[in-house]
Amino acid sequence: MSHLPPPAGPSNRGGPVATSAPAGSVLPSAGSPAGRGGTALVTGASSGIGAAVARRLAAEEGWRLVLNGRDVTRLEQVAAPLDALALPADLTRPGADRLLTDLVLDHAGRLDLLVASAGVGWAGDFTGMPRARVDEIVGVDLLATLHLVGALLPHMVAAGSGRIVLIGSVAGSVAVRGEAVYSAAKAGLAAFADALRYELRGTGVGVSHVIPGAVDTPFFARRGVPYTRAWPRPVPPERVADAVWTAVRHGQDEVYVPGWLRFPARVRGVAPGLYRRLAARFG
C-alpha cells in the first residue's frame, strides 16, 4: 500500500490517505451515466450501510468501485473481494475532500456515482452531550459530505451526467428524542439534497436522498447506547443498499426505508401540532 502525505491541517486522527488496489484490477478511463455502470465512490464503506452498498453495486455489471472509510483494515476487508480500490481517509480533515477527489479522478478519469453514507451518532440528553461529540457528528454527518460533494460536483457537471446519493435518516425528517444533534445534522443533509437538486436541474446530474429508519449495523453500539425499541424493528443494511440501487437505476429523488416511514414525515409536515403531541406521548 502506498501512502500519500496528509493534507495540511491540525487534525490527523484518521491517518494518512492511502491508495490500495487489488492485483489485476483496472479502473476505466471513462464511465457512463449513473444506473448504467461506470465509476462509483462510496464513503463510509468500511462497515454497515456503506459496505452493503458497495456489495450491491459490485453485483451489477459495469461498475468499478472506489471505497472510502476511516478504518483501514475493515475497508480493505470490504474492498478486496469486490476488486475495488480502497482509499482510506478521514474526510473531516482539512483538504481530505480535495485529495480524495484528485485520487478518484486520477485513477478513473471521471466519477458517475457518489454514495455518501459515512455517519456517526450519539444518544442522550443534549445538556449532557460533550462538545467534542457535537463537533464530530456535525463534521462527519454533514460538513464532510458537503465538502466532498463540493469538490466532486464540478467534474460531474462538466461531464453532463452522474448521480449523488445522500444517506440520511428518518431522524432528520421527524426528529428523535435523545438524538438532537444527529437529528439536526441529518435534517441539514435533507435540506441540502433538496436545494442541490433544484440547482442542478438541467445539468444531467441527479440527487437522491435515501432515508432509512433503524438499521441493523454497528452504528448503535458505536454511539454508546444500543437500540432497545421493540418497534420499529431494525432493517438489514442490505435493504438500504437495495433502495440505493433502486434510486440510482430509476433516478428517484427520495426513498424511505422501509417505505411506510414517509407517512409520519408527511403527518409532521401537514399537521405539526398533532405530530408533536403524538411524539411526546409515544416517543
From TrEMBL:
PROSITE patterns to which the protein is assigned, alphabetical: ADH_SHORT
Sorted UniProt keywords: Oxidoreductase
Region annotated Disordered, chain positions: 1-38
Domain Ketoreductase: 38-218
Any one GO molecular function term: oxidoreductase activity
UniProt protein name: Short-chain dehydrogenase
Family under the similarity heading: Belongs to the short-chain dehydrogenases/reductases (SDR) family.
Organism from which the protein derives: Streptomyces roseochromogenus subsp. oscitans DS 12.976
One cellular component (GO) term of this entry: membrane
PANTHER family given in the database record: DEHYDROGENASE/REDUCTASE SDR FAMILY MEMBER 7B, DEHYDROGENASE_REDUCTASE SDR FAMILY MEMBER 7B
Pfam families associated with the record: adh_short
Classification of source organism: Bacteria, Bacillati, Actinomycetota, Actinomycetes, Kitasatosporales
The keyword Oxidoreductase appears for this protein: yes
Alphabetical list of SMART domains matching this protein: PKS_KR
